Amino acid sequence: MDAATLQTFTSPVVLFFVLGLLAAFAKSDLAIPEAIAKGMSLYLMAAIGLKGGVAVSKSGIDGTVLAALGAGIAASFLIPFVAYAVLKGFGKLDRINAGAVAAHYGSVSVVTFVTAVEILEAQNRPPGGYMVAVMAAMETPAILSGLLLARGLGAKGEDTQNVGEMLHEVFFNASVVLLLGAFAIGMIAGADGFAEVSPFFEAGFKGVLCLFLLDMGLIAARRIMDARAVTWRLATIAIALPLVNGAAGTMLGAAIGLDAGSAAALGVLCASASYIAVPAAMRLALPEADPGIYLTMSLSITFPFNILINIGLISALAGAVIGSGGVAP
Description:
Elements: H1 3-9, H2 12-25, H3 34-59, H4 63-89, H5 95-106, H6 110-122, H7 131-137, H8 139-150, H9 160-172, H10 174-195, H11 198-203, H12 205-226, H13 232-255, H14 260-271, H15 277-285, H16 291-322
């Protein structure tokens, strides 16, 4: 284990998540009020979007940015097809549930990405600011793929009104709107404009992220204890998919010429699984799918695995393949 990987496990961000896990398993009454948790989520998305937009305003949009966007969108669309085959074959899921779960693994987790950015910056491997746009672009294609795999849009008996509601949820859900909106504001305002609000969005960022991950640890552990629908086969898939997808995403980033931090960020995005936007879309489009399966796999197994182990592995892989000296513009 190299020093950069070890640093992941000793980061306060990760340790607060571990504290949440331990508190929940110990049946502590520790809890973050829902309104505060939602406020922290909005703050984190606005901050990461703003900082990403400012970074792109400095570097500009070039071939590297466009290549990263294309790679991210393609990966988000294609990963569910691989996940679906594994979930139906080894996981023994029916078509509806396999499609719903596959959509989660092609889409992304904003919190996993934000945590990874914090860890990579501490390792002197900061991802390019444009990776925020890549993250936002990767939320939607996987949902469309999952629906096509589960039963296909426009299939016989499909409720047109529900399809419209689902598409609205996909393209205008809170995370997409806030991330892209803040990203655009950061690009327009630039470094000079951001300086006026940087004390609020930079000084408190790490502290808010620590408390937010404390809450996520509590939620993940309590859902594990309440889970009944996830078999050992599905639990294995929930760990194997992020390992394979993370390595593939990192190698893809290296192949298109990204620096070590950005390639690692792409790997983290490919490895993560959505537990906010995709569940909301699945409730509308596939109400017959079992939330006990897709939420437990994505939130209670894959999310902790990525935070505690996989981000460090992906960072180490990026450093080994590209070199630790690569610094994003």
